[in-house]
Every structure is written in C-alpha cells, then in structure tokens.
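fyi for ur records
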Amino acid sequence: MINKKTYDSIVVLGPTASGKTRLAVKLAGILNGEILSADARMVYKKMDIGTGKDLLEYFYNNKAIPYHLINLVDPNTSYHIYQYQQDFKIAFQLVQANKKIPIICGGSGLYIEAVIKDYQYTAIPINEHQRLIYLNQDYDDLLTTFKLMELPEYKKTADVATKKRLIRAIEIGQYLMAHPNLILPDSQSLNPIIIGLNPNLEMRRENILLRLQSRLKEGLIEEVEGLMNVGVEAKRLAHFGLEYKWISSYLLGNTGKEQMAEKLGIAIQQFAKRQMTYFRKMEKSGLKIHWIKQESEAFELLSEHFINTDFGQLTNNGLI
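which gave:
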C-alpha cells in the first residue's frame, strides 16, 4: 500500500560535489518549486566560485528556476545562523504564497537542522570576550563548567559533542541563567521529506578533485585575490571555508601552487566526511533521511511512496 504523507517541503542534502544543485533544480522544474539555499557561505556576495553557487545551473528546460538566500550580504558583514533562520522564514512564506513547493538545498547540516526544527536558542547572542577565555581551556574543564550549571532540562538536549559546540552550550546556559524570565517564541518546525545524496566514496573523491580543478581554471584564485584586494583579510577568508583558507595562504606566499591544490583537495575530501558525520547525527536526533545513490531514485521515492497531492502528481509529468 502506498504510504502518502503530508509534507510542506522537500530537502535535498548531501556532501560537497554530490550533485545536490542539479537534483534540486530538476525537482523544482518538474514539481513547480523554488529553491531555498541552505549553505552557510552562499549568503555572501562576491564569493561565487569558491562557494559553488553555480547560478547558471538554475534553469530547467530553458526556464529559470527561482532561488532564495543567496548573495544576501557582503563578505565583511557578520551573518549568523539566527539571521539565516529569520531570512529563511520570510523566503519560505514567500514561496508558499507563490503556491510553489519549497525545495531546501544545501550541505550545511546545522543550517538545515536549524530551520527544520526551528532552533530557539540561536537568538541568544554570542559572547566574544568569554569565548576567548574558553578557547584556552581544554574540553574536560569546559565540560565540568557545563555540568555545574543548574539547568537540568536544558542540559538534557544541549549538544556538547565538540569543544566548539560545548562552548556554545555553556554560552547559552549562562545566558539562560542570567535571564530566568526569558520568553522564546513558539517553535514553528517544518515537516519536509528529506532526500540525501550519497554517491559511493570513490565517485565522491573523483567528483571533488575534478570540480576543484575546474574551479581553479574558472578563476577561483583570482576570486580570492579580488576579495583580498578590497580589504577582506586572510583571517576572515579562512572563516569562509577551505578554498578561501588555502588559496589566501598561497597568495600570501606561504605555500606553492601545486602543494596548495593537492592539500586543498585532501582537505575537501575530509570535509565531505565531516558533513556525512553531521547528517548521521541528524538521523540519530530523529530526522529521517532517505539516502539515494543517483538522482533517478529521488523520483521513484517521491512518486511511489511519499508524493502528496500538495506536491502535484509526478505521473502528469511523464516520470512514471
């Protein structure tokens, strides 16, 4: 029996170079959808090649596919996950008002999880001064600080898996203790069907290296150089990810070009592995991800098991 459910959106996620954008665009073209980017770096302007925006790919059968949450702020502007959540809600409501299907596409697991579950604590401000102190402490000492906080309910759900997350957990806990009457807005979580692209390891490695070589030829080095020329510091560029970190280091004379490309390729492969680790964590927290190896499986998944009349009928588009 076909198990039809009511979903309000589709999520297409996966590690870098897995073909997310191509699949999301095809789904949007067939299902009358619009794309909402879930990438922590694509919100920045003037950073096109290194972030993999691939805006020329947003066409299906020569028709432009609308997209959102790309090119929002300048590189020197601070943009945190809470701001993304607010911008996402506006874009999501706009897509629904247009009577289109919201298709969330990206590889930033935290951003995806934050909008699906509508994380509330992201509104709590960052304490930069306190963070500098905590960064000089080891994980065990920080964990002791966390355990001493008198917030039993909060501590049950806080993520302390890494030092970075533990510091944020302490930061949130301290803010909650200092503001005991804090009232958070009601959560407005989504109910999406989540499709995860997971090509085999060898294919993933090959795609990463081929794409890196292609981007270097397209002008990735020149893009980073241009950002440095307009005052974006190397320290800031490192914040934007591996491509910007390694290439700015090369431009500063800290490494040779061939060595840079080789080490960058390895680092991106390691990053893809970390992305998959985060996606597995999302599954453990209760989110169902339907993993596929190739995009044709996505259409089978939607049409045979999970497609709802709100999404339209795939049979009308000749897919099955």
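The two ends are 17 Å apart (CA to CA). thats all i got for now
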